[in-house]
Design brief:
single chain, about 200 residues, alpha+beta, six-stranded mixed sheet, two-stranded antiparallel sheet, 4 helices
């Protein structure tokens, strides 16, 4: 079950995964580089000049899952439908040296490719210990689409990629609906006769 903190739990999961593979890396080129959930613009305002920005820039609902039938937890209760959401992250390496930026971006691509499905011990926060699984997909945005994201930030374009994380379920905070259980079922069939 995931409450309203599920979005933060996903961000923490991605942050910790990158910290384990970049900040704690033995490679001197990327070792010690912090992973931040701030936007590149916020990082600039804070004076952070060496880091990887993992910025959640868009949240949308996954319409295909809105009509999934609820799973009864109790025979006389029907839970309210959860809200399935998709999370979009802009990943930006921040560093003065272009080759280090390239190495950081390459490492991010490698880590998310190796961990395209996150579940079990990978998950953090409210998702920890659940049967949830997250898919981390590299988004193929055009340069124009990516430039629009940077335009919205009010910053000049920087080398970056976007990732889609799906599906995060945010459970309803309302009480389940009371419903009597199905006590018996009757299945019938009839032959359809052709009209001549």
């Amino acid at each position: 079950m995931s409450d309203y903190t599920a979005i933060g739990a996903v961000s923490k999961t991605l942050n910790d995964l990158l910290q384990d593979n970049i900040t704690s890396s033995s490679d001197p080129q990327i070792q010690g580089v912090a992973i931040q959930l701030f936007s590149p613009k916020e990082m600039q305002g804070l004076g952070i000049t060496t880091a990887v920005s993992v910025w959640l820039y868009k949240v949308s609902r996954m319409a295909e899952m809105l009509n999934d039938p609820p799973i009864r937890q109790q025979p006389n209760q029907i839970p309210r439908a959860p809200l399935p959401v998709l999370l979009y992250y802009l990943i930006t390496p921040i560093h003065n040296d272009p080759l280090t930026r390239h190495a950081l971006l390459g490492k991010v691509l490698q880590v998310f490719n190796d961990h395209a499905i996150l579940r079990g011990a990978d998950l953090k926060g409210v998702l920890q210990g659940t049967s949830d699984q997250l898919r981390v997909n590299l988004e193929a945005l055009t340069l124009e689409e990516l430039s629009l994201v940077w335009y919205a930030l009010g910053e000049p374009y920087q080398l970056s990629v976007t990732y889609l994380v799906q599906v995060v379920q945010i459970d309803s905070d309302r009480q389940p609906l009371q419903s009597s259980p199905v006590l018996s079922r009757k299945v019938t069939y009839e032959q359809i006769l052709a009209v001549v």
